[in-house]
Amino acid sequence: MEIVEFTENYITEARRLAAENYEEERAHVPTLPGINEIPMERELTANGLGTAAVEHGRLLGFWGCVGPWEREYGSLASGVFTPIHAHGAVQEGRAELYRRMYQALADKLVRRGIAYHSISVYAHDNQALSGLFTYGFGMRCVDAVRDMKEVPVPGGTAGTVVFRESGQTDFPEIRKLRAGLGRHLGESPCFIMMDEDSIANWQQRKESGGVRMFTAWNGKEPVAYLEITDEGENFVTGGREVQNVCGAYCMPQYRGRGIMQMLVNYVMGVLQAEGYTKLGVDYESINPTAWGFWNKYFEAYTYSLTRRIVESACREGFQGPVS
Q: Can you list the alpha helix ranges (DSSP code H) found in the chain?
């Protein structure tokens, strides 16, 4: 076996491998929709940042990247990301394939000054996860899905809280909920930091369109919200039968009363009447509130992993340690 550059010549075989890996995950998570074709953009080979494992002309595995971007995850480092359709491998010896491909890929990335390496892996692909964990990756984000069956509601009834889909007239009142989410994400152990200007810009982007807003109200006060969009963070989320949660928050004093569960059920009732059959969500595993809620009611099908290389290794002309 040899590790070579991932080029356009391997696209057809790579798409087949990616489709096989997706069907493996569907066997564990039957709620996932069927996919006619896996996307495979030219960027995965055109940027020269991919690797492939080949034996006797047969593609055993591939690993492409999108990017690089500066200030990845708000840091001072540049980074790349590999979505779930941008990598794959045969089952036999998969953990070692990922280790070998990453060793070659990481060398290439570090020589380009790219210190943040991120990849989304199927949640039940224990071989790939094992290979990546042993080489320093840790979990950061999760994609999960469920059908439109109601989630159980603890804590009794909603009391005076009512639920509705909100429009622009509600935006001024809802902004404090989004600001609350922004501040929450900056707390330990999440540390996704946003200053007030960043939160204001984020508010503007959300209010400019493309997102449906559902809210829970206690009188004239919004106490929880949930945002829905057509597409999420991977190719699965763009299916015709799928809608996706792209933001949610409940005021701390209203937690533990089943309000967010009831809001999710309200949203699913609306979406189901419109013909949708699946609801997806992506959330940070490093956010304990999100992990505790979504992990309880939705089934994970991807984990996004990251590795941060020390910047001293990313200097120009780096040749590795002297042996």
A: 11-28, 43-46, 94-111, 126-133, 171-185, 196-207, 259-273, 288-297
